[in-house]
Amino acid sequence: MQIFVKFFKIYLNAKASVTIPLIAFIVSLCMMAKLGDSEDGNAVNNSYSVVVIDEDNSEVSKEIVKYIDKTNTIKEGQYDDMMINDLLYYKHIAAAIRIPRGFGESFLQSKAEGDISIESRVDEAMPTGKFVDSQINQFLSAMKVKLNGGMGISEAAKEAAKACDTQGFVNKLTEEKTGKMEQMFMFTSYVVIYLTLMGILPIIISFNEKEIIRRILASSVNQFSKNAAVFFGCAALAFIEFLVLIATNGILLKDDGLFGEAFAMCCLNLFIFTLVSCMLLFLMSTFIRKKGAASNMSAVVISLAFSFVGGSFVKLDYLSENIKKIGRFTPNYWYSVANTDILTGKGLTDVVPYFMMELLFGVVCVAVGLAVLRFRRERE
Description:
Blueprint: H1 2-13, H2 16-41, E1 49-54, H3 59-71, E2 73-74, H4 81-89, E3 95-99, H5 103-109, E4 119-122, H6 127-148, H7 153-163, H8 170-175, H9 178-206, H10 210-218, H11 223-253, H12 261-287, H13 293-309, H14 321-327, H15 331-342, H16 348-379
Parallel strand pairs: 1-2, 1-3
Antiparallel strand pairs: 3-4
Helix pairs in contact: 1-11, 2-9, 2-11, 3-7, 6-7, 9-11, 9-12, 9-13, 9-15, 11-12, 12-15, 12-16, 15-16
């Protein structure tokens, strides 16, 4: 009990190092929620910037481009795949549309309604790109009906444009809020690993100082009791951190009607990730024995690196295959994959393997940490 109390006394003496970043992160989550509200709420009333690549240059493709330009704003210029990824990620465009060579001819020859579709790239987490994609698909279906009725291409396109009423998408878009939840829970994983390493690691290191060790050895507290007290202290702080972040996300998402199985599973995923972060903390404490710039720098570098390659900052869809291969060795990657699958409607049995991969990383950290401690004791 004395060790447990001492643990929290050390924390209270350095609480600013955790409290200030936590407040900053909560403010960031509030800003993300507000941004999501403004984007989702205006999805129908606005037109959006769209990149159109017309490789076909046929009469049909020109009518499609004309319709897109009428309902949205075509962003002029030449763009490669990397540039399009950047434009989508930074929300400079809502969608990238490619009309492949030969599309017009195959579209005219097809008799089935809705059989042909053009290629589109959108951010699956945002409703704006889906809205643009739905506009185009509806226009193509309507145009096919008019063409099958004997109209010419120009007349069919004109009538199809009149038939396409964007108000039909209102209910669908106002209900698509999962993109905001995904962004907030992804960012929360970075908050968890940063606060765990930055806030709790210095406390554990404090118990490795020679003066503290001498006092513990001189007392009636044995090594097992000391380790157990430190463990429960870390668990208590991490659990408080978890509850604060879940409460924050819950409050910010309460108006979107997102509480349900998906929200509960995201919370479970975050709880497992918090547990794994504590296991990583144990491993780091076996290597870093002194407080100061080295421990702080290690915490910052690891939390940032894991979050970047694991999809906490940038969606995995936008990362290169080489980065993804590296990311698979981090818990953030499997946390991100699980969250994406949860918010696309998959059930618990589908995401359990990802939970297990997160826990496997934690178990490896604990195993390596114990091996290091045993080796160090044998040397001493």
